[in-house]
Amino acid sequence: MGKVDERNQSVTNILNDLITKAKDTNYTLNETSYKDAMDKLFTTDAWGFREIILVVVVGMKMDESYRASTGLYDCNPRAIYEGPIKEFLIENNIPHRKSGPLNIAKAAKGLDSAWAAQRRPQDVAKKVVDIVNLLENSQTANFTEMIGVSLLRRLIAESQRMENLNVEIEPSEDPEWLYTISHELISKAPDAGNTPQKIAAFLLKNYHLAMNTGIIVTGEEDRASVTSTTSKKPGDVNEESADGNIYKVYEITVKPFDIARIRDSYDCVNTYNQSSNADLHEIIVICRPEDCPTEMKKSTTHVYMGSYEYQDIIYYYWNIYEWICDTLQRMTSNARSSFYTNLNNYISDINTSETVKKLWLKLHNR
What we know:
Elements: H1 3-23, H2 35-40, H3 48-62, H4 68-71, H5 77-91, H6 100-104, H7 113-117, H8 122-137, H9 143-163, H10 175-188, H11 194-211, E1 216-218, H12 228-231, E2 237-240, E3 246-252, H13 259-276, E4 282-287, E5 297-298, E6 304-310, E7 313-319, H14 320-330, H15 333-348, H16 354-363
Parallel strand pairs: 3-4, 4-7
Antiparallel strand pairs: 1-2, 2-3, 5-6, 6-7
Helix pairs in contact: 1-5, 1-9, 3-8, 3-9, 10-14, 10-16, 11-14, 11-15
């Protein structure tokens, strides 16, 4: 077994030991010195704050001399989080982000007051620093283990709470009902753009599957925060051939797709064209009327709202609500049913936003 495999196995063993103790009702803890700080980590949807504490605990269990306050990266946090820690979280159905702790600690030398001052919400970041200071200075025996067990007990409780929000749906092919719930989700729980992107991807995917067009739809697995540069794709959602040639590019948004966004998009598409020897010069932006640039050449139709030409790429703006309604009407009944199932499965996923889950539950309890 190589060094990396040995390290990963060590991380897995540490976490399995901690979760065993966390599930043991006879394992008692005195949380007096850190309860308020630990509870604070669970008051924000920035999950990276609680995940970074898990990384620190693992780092200190692996090496007692590890000090996250001054040398955060000494434990190779990216490697251990994106490898064995994330696998552990997935196996135990615990809510997590792809690189949550790494995003909040990017370029940080240590988890200290200077780091906390640059993070939002700052009051939560300060509690992270408080816990790290306690870990590094406590004279209590097995204190690192105590923090790990306390954290995992809360993560297990979060998992159970999220599971309780899931909905058992009855199959539906009704385009009016499916449009209503899609509209409600996008307008009331956009989740930083994840909701409209998932809805658009599921619609296109199931449309093509039912029609047996052979077109592959990509983008449904990405979060809206994933940039085109990171995904190496020119848009949020793409229609492609089986061998990966992109036919159509879609940007899905409920934020202004203005000149600044157009420039960013242009750079990504241009980079993709050059690296892939492609020739993409049209982008479809599916958004709300208020998200269109004021300089747009306006249309007199409803679904198609207008266009904006930037250098050698033209952006066509479609009304997201009209497009959803139109697409549902054109889908087969089986495709609509599959779309509904896909959407429910996504919302039932442990990592989907609590706001989205609660609205979905409300929509089905009317």
